[in-house]
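Weekly sync notes, structure subgroup
Attendees: PM, AL, DS (notes)

Item 1: joint prediction request from the bench team. They want all two components modeled as one assembly rather than separately. Inputs as received:
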Amino acid sequence: MPLKFSPSLFELRDLYFSKGENAILKAVSMKVLAGEYCAIIGPNGGGKTTLIRLMMGLEKPTSGSISLFGIPQPQFNAWHKIGYVPQRSALVDATFPATVREVVAMGRYARRGIFGWENRSDKEAIEEAMEHMGVSDLRHRLIGHLSGGQRQRVMIARALASHPEVLIVDEPNTGVDVESQHRFYELLRFLNKTAHIAIVFITHDVGVIAEDISKLFFVNQTLLLSQTPQEILSCDSMSRLYGTPAHVVCHNH
Amino acid sequence: MEMLHYPFMQRAFIAGLMIALLAATSGSFIVLRRYSLLSETLAHVSLVGVSVGILVGISPLWMAVVASLIASWLIEYLRSVHGMYSDSVLAIFLSGSLALAIVIVSLSGSFNASLFSYLFGSILSVSSEDLMIMGGFGSLAMGLLIVFFKELYFIAFDEEVARASGLKVVWLNFMLVTIIAVIIALSIRVVGTLLIGALMVIPPVSAIRFEVGFFYTTLLSIAIALLSVVMGLSCSFFFSLPSGATIVLALLLFFVLALVMNRR
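Output from the run, pasted for the record:
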């Protein structure tokens, strides 16, 4: 009988990152497997966003190694397999001349290559991503004219247009109303459970997605915990990690 | 149409329309990146090249291309590698190059008509050799802009995600400033170093007012630039005015029209 294993999408080994004298991340080792739904939590300034930026190759580690889909990051070039929605991506200049369709189409650029014009499969992927995110009707609207929640969906549609195997989302709910947040969490659940896309999600609101996530990383300069949410989400452990009294409130939407 | 019977006007129109196409296309990217001052700065740097050219007797146009290219790479290097603020770097180069040009002109002891035509543009000054240089470099620049159009647009919209999706952003940024440096240096015959910034910035800024998405904004921007060049060159011919100034006034007319038609 063949061995069953989950291929690792991200593997970080003994990662250090500092800026000048400031150590931002120390000795971080972690793994994200195919199909997982991972949340990264931790206090502000704890290095969560830096960790994501290192994974995406936007920063270079001081030491340690990163592998993406089993390939060392410097040699990795299949970036279309990773959908990335950075922090505050929904905050767009109101006058920027970009229609929703043009923004979603950007998600295909990495696949198309330099001389690639938009072909039929690109068009289908763009339509599918807009349909998926419920923004097809907004295709001709300028991105800057949309509400925060609509823009957020457009940014996710852009990430989905490349048909990624993993979606990385960094605190996406900045400036977004509660109803849109609720729809957003439902969408992530759908993408993970139905479309089988692995999710790596930085959030402060872990209670809301506690039932969905399969792994929780607590990052505060180093990786303090990598456990299932049930193990970590207790008042005692959260108080210990944040260094201040914490009450865990789980709310189901 | 009588003016088109004159060979110098034919050359001026070919050069002007070529520059309008290039300046409006590349200008869209720098305007959206809040990097508009780049064109103004490189235009001043071109003046250094022109001054050196006049002083030592080498083609001022070639010298302008060389000076503009070197400055564009230095500016991008200081901005992207050393992380210096764009506006500060541009301010340093803008005033520094103007100072250098003034010193060189003073040393040569001649603030002559030739230099005046490089400052403000002159339809009489476009030679067949200039047209060939502009045609060669202009085709190359336009080819690169078309091939990398979508990548440059992605970077203008969201540089971080563009990098994360595997685009060679640093390389593409260097390529864009190189193209702009060449376009500016080539433009000085028709528009002049002091006014080329307007041809790069005003068409996209006017087109953005129509709120039509990037592709149509670029087309609209090109149309505004082409019409302005036709109007400006015609006025220059009929009223014996410097072509750079008349082109910029035509651009401003379109800008005011865009403002009036799209009041928010």
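Discussion: The first helix of chain A runs from residue 48 to 55.
Action: AL to compare against the crosslinking data before next sync.
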